[in-house]
Amino acid sequence: MTSSIPSTTTSIVATAPGPVDADTSFVAHESETPTPTGHDLLVEVRAVSVNPVDVKVRSGFDADAAPKVLGFDAAGVVVAVGPDVTTRAVGDEVYYAGSIARPGSNTGHQLVDERIVGRKPSSLDFAAAAALPLTTITAWEALFDVLEIAEGASGTILVTGGAGGTGSMVTQLARALTDLTVVATASRSESREWAERMGAHHVVDRHDLVESVRAVVPDGVDHVFSAFSDGNVEAYAELLRVRGAVVAIDDPEGLDTMPLKDRSQSWRWEFMFARPLHEPESDAQKRILDRVADLVDEGAIVTTANRTLSPLGVDTLREAHRLLESSSTIGKVVIAAS
């Protein structure tokens, strides 16, 4: 089944890996609109958001893959479906984080597997919804799959990067679905205010981590969500209780986790693209996004969009990437298609 679809679509591509201001990093590219097969949906993209992984891919992808359509988070409308699709229909409003193995969301029309696509929260516009998928899935999997925290569980979790996109969602999900005490880190007054708005019980200075955390939870923490692992392993080991666990999402080189051994603490990883890459038949991410859409519409979760640009094009994407590279963003930068 299809609706009226243009024969071509415009994507913003990188024709070579490189820095944000390189002419090759953001180029408008016209191509034939793809046709969905199998479990694919063809989505008319109405908004996207930008994540650190977008910056990482843009600056270091394999040049043989050019032109590279960047982007992961998106919200839009289904305009065609493959013959095996059973969960979505033409006209559905959806949101998703995509797969690192497929062309990205910085385009007019994108193919995405229905099993990683959720229904867009009806209470949000497309830009506000586009802020959520990648960080929501990362936070959910980190809490409930990797750390194996049960809904309704008690204890204490330290959330580093409390004003970041993923840290914001870890805090919100922990507050909405568990009885965990959330201690978030922040370094600036505006970051502290954001982390408090997301629901953190305590916000502490990330520069004096052990002293700051001990001041509010003297007995330490049961779990750590680590957005910034480099240089923090010893602090985590000191703060974690016996058999506590860290879940990390960053890419620290040569990380030494031996300080965790003395108390039988563990280090675990969360990579939200693992399921699309290695478990393509799983619909777990669809179910996560549908559940969170319900939580948003119930008022238990709010969007993390904090700055909106428009339209989706070379200049706005370059600006969004610059903002992320400044390391000063709070929440998410989103781009409305028009």
What gyration radius follows from the Cα positions, in whole Å?
20 Å
Give helix and strand order, one letter per element, not per position.
EEEHEEEEEHHEHEHEHEHEEHHEHE
Strand percentage, roughly? 25-35%
| Separation, N- and C-terminal Cα atoms | 26 Å
- Describe the sheet with the most strands: 7 strands, mixed
Protein name: Zinc-type alcohol dehydrogenase-like protein
Keywords: Metal-binding, NADP, Oxidoreductase, Zinc
InterPro entries: ADH-like_N (IPR013154), ADH_Zn_typ-1 (IPR014182), ER (IPR020843), GroES-like_sf (IPR011032), NAD(P)-bd_dom_sf (IPR036291), Zinc-ADH_QOR/CCCR (IPR051603)
Family: Belongs to the zinc-containing alcohol dehydrogenase family. Quinone oxidoreductase subfamily.
